[in-house]
Amino acid sequence: MFDRWKAKPRDSGGLRTAGEAAARPKPEHPAEEQIYTRPSNGLQQFFSAVSDFQGFPILDLAGASQANVSAITGLGFSLYSDNVIRSLENAFGSGAECLENQSDPVKVQQFIDSTLDFEPSHFGGALLWDTLQFLSPPLLQDTVDQLHEILMPGGYMLAFFHANERAESVPVYSYRIAADTKSIVLATRGERRAATYVNNLAMENLFQKFSSVKFFLTRDHLREVIVRR
Backbone phi, then psi, for 179, in 5-degree steps? Predict the structure, then answer.
C-alpha cells in the first residue's frame, strides 16, 4: 500500500487532455510557499451532509495530516487517508511518463487496486480535493466509477477542479481542514499540468451514476463540487 493511514473517531464524540503531467519540485526555501486560509462552502456543506454517517469511515485523498485527523475524528468519523498524487506516480511514473502510462489498462487496474480497493458501500463520504484533475481519461472515469462503488448510498464526495481551462499548469496544494471545519488551509506544493479539464457539462457526464452534483465557484479559481451517491 502507498502511504495509507487509518484513524478511528475520538471518544468525545467536456473532458480535454491537457498535456503531460509534469510536476515542479517543492520550493527550496519555505518562504516561497504560499499558505493561506479561506472559508469553504463545499467543505461546510460536506460535513453537514455526511452527519448521518457519523461513526463510518471518511476517505481523505490528501494524505495523512494531523489537522485532518483531528477535524474528521473529532466529528465522530473514522478516517482512511491516502496520498493519491504519490500513488499516481508510484503506479505510472513521473513527468510525461505518468500521463502516457495512464492509458495502460494493466497499470490502470493496479492503480485502482492499490488506491481504492475497498468493499462496496464502505465509506460515508470522500474528500477528493483536487486529485481527479490529474487523472486522464479513461483512468478518470474508472476511478469515479470505483468511488461510486465504495461509497454508501446517500454518501457524499467533495472534489475541487481548477476553473481556468487556459492555464498551462495549475497549483498543487496540500489541503488542511481548519479547526472550525468550515475553512481550509491551502499550501502550495509546486505546479503540475492537469491531465484533464472538466467543465460543468463534462462534470455532469463524469458523475452521471450519482444522484446529484452541486457547484461552488471560489475566488481562487477552484470549482468546489459536492457529489451525492
Answer: -60, -30
Rg (CA), the chain: 16
- How far apart CA 199 and CA 79 sit, in angstroms, is 30
Which H, E and C letters describe 154-209, residue by residue? EEEEEEEEECCCCCCCEEEEEEEECCCCCEEEEEEEEEECCCEECCHHHHHHHCCC
Convert the pLDDT of each residue in 132-141 to its tens digit: 988 988 899 9
Domains of the chain: 4-228 (3.40.50)
Band of residue 4 on the pLDDT scale cut at 50, 70, 90? low
Neighbours of 101 (CB within 10 A): 18
Show Cβ contacts of residue 66 under 8 Å, excluding neighbours closer than 6 positions. none
Residue 14 and residue 17: Cα distance in Å, rounded? 10
d(CA 126, CA 61): 8
Quick one: DSSP state of residue 83? B
18 — pLDDT class (breaks 50, 70, 90): very low
To the nearest 5 percent, what fractions of the chain are helix, strand and coil? 35, 35, 35
